[in-house]
Specification:
The complex is a heterodimer of chains A (about 260) and B (about 350).
Chain A (H helix, E strand, L loop, with lengths): L5 E10 L2 E11 L4 E6 L5 H8 L7 E6 L2 E3 L4 H6 L2 E4 L11 H5 L9 H5 L5 H14 L16 H15 L3 E5 L7 H16 L3 E5 L3 H7 L2 E6 L2 E6 L6 H9 L12
Parallel strand pairs in A: 3-8, 3-9, 6-7, 7-8
Antiparallel strand pairs in A: 1-2, 1-4, 4-5, 9-10
Chain B lengths: L9 H11 L3 H7 L3 H17 L1 H4 L2 H26 L7 H19 L4 H27 L5 H20 L9 H8 L2 E2 L3 E2 H19 L1 H11 L1 H6 L4 H27 L10 H11 L11 H21 L4 H25 L2
Antiparallel strand pairs in B: 1-2
């Protein structure tokens, strides 16, 4: 097994008296799709948010390519080459797709105007259109506000943004939850392509057939702790569900995937 | 990961795009600031037809613009604040405070020359900036609602102005200030006050529409959490936006001082609401994320034209308030309609 590209060890996160994560682990290897599964409230989204700088953890450590790192802001995660497709997509609905694509890393005009903070809108629009094309995201009017777009198109914008900027890992928090059959197909194909490009994908999903189709490994979270690391080729969907609900326990040490 | 361009049937795709867009006239009519601009044009046409001699006249246009200048400067700052989904109720009080301390400072220095005027201007801008920074800090860092913060600083700024003056207007303003900036005209035609207000609107309009600062203003108003996650320093940006609003209120205070040669302490109690109304009439959404500076300019001129037109036509000026109130409600209704269309 190669060295993990990202590893969370014994992550603790509290919200007031609620302990959302009680020593949670997550391992991500290079060029793999790892599914993070768990019942509602298991702490999946919270674990992701501690690793991408949205909620800094209260305890535990994060290793990036073997060295301990702190990820206290989204900026720090971004600098490591980590991007996230949030469950709520985190799009600014009142601006256009290109503005969302380049939010926080705008291209400025060359020369003096750029130094004054003037945006190079044509360049951003063109590069966004190229990214949407390459990823098969169809947007009719790229000057329209994101608010005018369908759920699938918004998802496309959010995923394109993450995939375009990531150089190591893309976290996707239920990227297909709001999508129809065709759009879900597109997202699953896209996840495969992202891996072929040498990135790792952490996929949060409730949909077992989807997980078994695209994931190389499955990590199961239950009550804020990792309870199993499994390979879809070696286990059945029932095993995974059993691990999620606690009906079946796997000891981490015994079942190192 | 890089995304290589795939040049497939680009021409056809472009043609498809053109077809799916609304025709230009439809976009024009449903555009955020144009429908309200048509109302302004309509008002001007109606008053011009009713009283061509008095209303459609250079002197009258100058009067309207001069009346609107101070409010426009405040409304420019308010536009930024409201696009971030905030509100600034303190602008009128900050205007008064800035005027008072500027007058005091100029009296302290004494004399009647550009040096004194500069001291007054710097004092007005600095005091406005101070209140703006306080507003921004409380909104962004203490996470208090902007409505409450600026209601609080409204009372503090106005109370402080009254304490400083003992409630009596400062009347000894340098004559040179009143004579030049207050009532002078560039090239004998354009009042300096109007020129200043136009320059402020132009500069900040360009900043809003074309720069990264403007883009962040829209993004934060549209989705603050998403902006944070995109790595934007939201707190710092909000503080800057309130600081701009405060500084422009300070500038407006100095302009008011120059125009009236007195601090007009009691004369600005509805400036905040007038500015908010103007911004909202101009198509800026109170929910944040939407708005233009052109719209705000139009929104400032609708009440100004109405007031002026009613006086000339001989309608009681009080009707202006009624009419502006109605326009405000219509403007917000149009905004809601637009949003409903988007969110189908």
């Amino acid at each position: 097994m190669p060295e993990p590209v990202l590893e969370a060890r014994q992550i603790v996160k509290r919200f007031g008296r609620v302990q959302a994560l009680r020593g949670a682990n997550l391992t991500v290897y290079p060029r793999e799709v790892v599914a993070l599964v768990g019942d509602n409230g298991a702490g999946k989204s919270t674990l992701v948010k501690t690793m991408v700088g949205v909620h800094p953890p209260d305890g535990g450590e994060i290793l990036f390519e073997g060295r301990p790192v702190t990820v206290n802001t989204p900026h720090e995660a971004r600098d490591l080459g980590i991007e996230t497709v949030y469950q709520d997509l985190a799009l600014a609905a009142e601006v256009d797709p290109a503005a969302n694509m380049f939010l926080g890393r705008e291209i400025l005009r060359p020369g003096l105007l750029g130094k004054l903070g003037f945006l190079d809108k044509p360049a951003m629009r063109q590069r966004s259109d190229e990214a949407f094309d390459a990823l098969g995201v169809r947007i009719q009017d790229t000057a329209a506000r994101v608010a005018n777009m369908s759920g699938g198109q918004r998802q496309g914008v959010a995923i394109s943004r993450a995939v375009t900027w990531a150089s190591k890992i893309v976290f996707m928090d239920e990227p297909t939850a709001a999508l129809g059959v065709v759009q879900t197909r597109n997202v699953l194909d896209l996840i495969q392509r992202v891996r072929e490009h040498g990135l790792s994908v952490v996929l949060i999903s409730h949909n077992m057939p989807e997980v078994f189709e695209v994931a190389d490994r499955i990590e199961v979270l239950r009550l804020g702790e990792r309870v199993a690391q499994l390979r879809p080729k070696e286990v059945s969907m029932e095993d995974v569900v059993a691990a999620m609900t606690g009906a079946l326990t796997f000891h981490e040490e015994d079942r190192q995937a | 990961m890089t995304t290589p361009a795939t040049p497939t049937d680009e021409v056809e795709a472009e043609e498809l795009l053109e077809e799916e867009r609304e025709p230009w006239w439809q976009r024009l009519v449903t555009g955020s600031s144009t429908s309200i601009a048509l109302i302004l044009v309509g008002l001007i046409v109606v008053f011009s037809l009713l009283r061509p001699e008095e209303f459609f006249d250079v002197n009258n246009a100058r009067n309207i613009a001069t009346d609107a200048a101070v409010l426009l400067v405040i409304a420019v700052g308010m536009t930024f604040v409201i696009i971030t989904a905030g509100i600034d109720l303190s602008v009128g009080a900050v205007l008064v405070f800035a005027g008072v301390v500027a007058a005091k400072a100029m009296n302290e220095v004494g004399g009647d020359n550009w040096g004194v005027i500069f001291v007054g201007l710097a004092t007005a801008l600095a005091s406005g900036l101070g209140w703006g920074l306080l507003n921004g800090f409380l909104v962004a860092k203490a996470k208090l609602p902007a409505f409450i913060v600026t209601l609080g600083t409204l009372g503090m700024a106005l109370g402080s102005a009254l304490l400083i003056t003992g409630g009596v207007d400062q009347r000894d303003v340098p004559f040179k200030l009143v004579d030049t900036i207050g009532s002078g005209r560039a090239f004998g035609e354009v009042p300096y006050l109007v020129l200043i207000a136009a320059a402020v609107a132009l500069v900040f309009g360009v900043i809003l529409a074309a720069t990264r600062f403007g883009r962040y203003t829209y993004a934060i108003g549209s989705n603050e959490e998403a902006s944070r996650r995109a790595g934007i320093n939201v707190d710092a940006h909000l503080i800057k936006v309130y600081a701009i609003a405060g500084t422009l209120a300070g500038l407006a205070g100095f302009m008011s001082l120059a125009r009236f040669a007195t601090t007009t302490i009691g004369g600005h109690s509805t400036d905040n609401l007038d500015a908010i109304a103007a911004v909202v009439i101009g198509g800026t959404s109170l929910f944040g994320g939407i708005g233009t500076m052109v719209g705000t300019v139009v929104g400032v001129f609708i009440p100004a034209v109405l007031r002026n037109g009613f006086v000339i036509v001989g309608v009681q000026a009080f009707w202006q308030q009624v009419a502006v109130g109605a326009v405000l409600i219509v403007a917000v209704y149009l905004d809601q309609l637009r949003r409903a269309r988007y969110r189908r």
